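Re: that backbone. Tokens:
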């Protein structure tokens, strides 16, 4: 089966912000006509002053006052990147937000968690981001234990995912955060403790956040003891009633297949007590893995063609069908979905499951601030391989004619290299299981 011609056009989500951009542009033009340059400086000073006042309000005893302050800070960070403010008040804002998580209401915890996440994306990779992770992880871990309210848990999971994504310097740090997330749904309980069944939204968010961090880790470096049985659990989620749970689990499984470390996440045949070697168990382990894959493919096929009932939401059902058609096509033919999103007048494109999961998570977390961050946040641009046209034009103005031909021509070495790399990724995905089959069959 070849790649579908339309590449699931309805999944080419369009974050059409042209109208918003034009209205902002016209408003800015009007203001520039009415104000001298010093006036613009005064506006910026006023914004900084309001942010300073909001941070000061986080010291207030009244919870409602802190909530309003956090909402104001979040609005400011979503409307523009506050680099100068962060340079001056990074530590203060972080510590006050952590205090809000320790002692605040569920609403305050949600707001503070979101502020910490946006703060990390604004700070970018480096020592400050790593400091954020190290100081926040114990507080977030404790907050998970102090209550099971879904909205609070979801906000903490998303916050932990973002600060680890930005501040995790090594696989061990990232894997530690992934373990904390996993234990939210699979807690290690003492014999006298009764487990609290997580809601569908909490399970969805956990799997979504866990997958988001898995995109940053070399699968072969993960500790298999910590993640065995993960595939069986994710496969069981495909049978749940909630469609958001099914989709999150399906994407996670596709990602595990893409990074090529299926055996790290599945329980193979253990060595027997009679002293049989690990080598002797390889054929049975191969059969076990192939059985898991066959089961998941059958589940994906059923979900890609599920009939809608009377209570089925048409949009949710369509999203599920489209997603599992992509998953099925990937499992069977090695093709990952190619997605295009409109960011202002530019297109942001993805061609792997890893990129798609990163894009969806960041877009969901930033909400209305996504467009602004994609246009100005260099960290997100690097992560998703996105270069706005304005940035391209600025670079092109500094290029000579021969350099422009070198980099812009469809026949340039750069474009050829990109095409070869994309084809290589697709070939590896398609041949991975064939290579594994050949390797294991030699053991029979």
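Recovered sequence:
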């Amino acid at each position: 089966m070849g790649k579908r011609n339309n590449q699931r056009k309805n999944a080419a989500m369009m974050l059409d912000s042209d109208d918003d951009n034009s209205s902002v542009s016209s408003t800015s033009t009007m203001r520039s006509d009415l104000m001298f340059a010093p006036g613009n400086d005064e506006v910026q000073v006023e914004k900084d002053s309001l942010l300073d006042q909001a941070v000061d309000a986080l010291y207030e005893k009244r919870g409602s006052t802190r909530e309003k302050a956090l909402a104001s800070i979040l609005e400011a960070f979503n409307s523009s990147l506050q680099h100068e403010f962060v340079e001056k008040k990074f530590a203060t804002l972080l510590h006050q937000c952590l205090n809000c998580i320790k002692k605040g209401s569920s609403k305050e915890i949600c707001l503070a968690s979101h502020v910490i996440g946006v703060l990390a994306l604004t700070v970018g990779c480096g020592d400050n981001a790593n400091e954020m992770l190290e100081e926040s992880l114990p507080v977030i871990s404790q907050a998970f234990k102090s209550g099971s309210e879904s909205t609070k848990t979801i906000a903490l999971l998303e916050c932990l995912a973002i600060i680890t994504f930005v501040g995790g310097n090594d696989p061990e740090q990232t894997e530690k955060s992934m373990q904390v997330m996993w234990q939210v749904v699979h807690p290690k309980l003492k014999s006298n403790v009764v487990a609290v069944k997580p809601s569908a939204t909490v399970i969805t968010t956990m799997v979504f956040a866990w997958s988001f961090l898995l995109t940053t880790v070399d699968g072969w470096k993960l500790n298999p003891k910590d993640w065995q049985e993960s595939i069986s659990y994710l496969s069981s989620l495909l049978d749940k009633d909630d469609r958001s749970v099914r989709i999150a689990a399906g994407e996670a499984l596709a990602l595990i297949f893409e990074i090529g470390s299926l055996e790290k996440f599945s329980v193979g045949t253990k060595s027997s007590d009679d002293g049989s070697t690990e080598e002797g168990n390889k054929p049975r382990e191969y059969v076990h893995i192939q059985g898991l894959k066959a089961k998941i493919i059958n589940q994906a096929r059923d979900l890609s063609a599920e009939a809608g009932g009377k209570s089925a939401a048409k949009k949710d059902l369509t999203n599920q069908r489209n997603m599992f058609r992509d998953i099925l096509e990937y499992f069977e033919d090695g093709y990952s979905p190619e997605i295009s999103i409109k960011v202002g007048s530019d297109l942001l494109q993805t061609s792997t499951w890893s990129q798609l999961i990163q894009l969806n998570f960041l877009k969901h977390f930033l909400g209305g601030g996504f467009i602004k961050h994609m246009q100005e946040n260099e960290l997100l641009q690097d992560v998703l391989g996105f270069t706005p046209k304005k940035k391209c034009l600025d670079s092109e103005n500094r290029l000579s004619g021969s350099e422009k031909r070198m980099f812009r021509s469809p026949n340039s070495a750069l474009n050829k290299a990109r095409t070869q790399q994309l084809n290589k990724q697709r070939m590896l995905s398609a041949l991975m299981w064939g290579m594994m089959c050949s390797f294991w069959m030699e053991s029979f």
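Confidence is low (pLDDT under 50) at residues 1-41, 269-280. The first strand starts at residue 14 and ends at 15.
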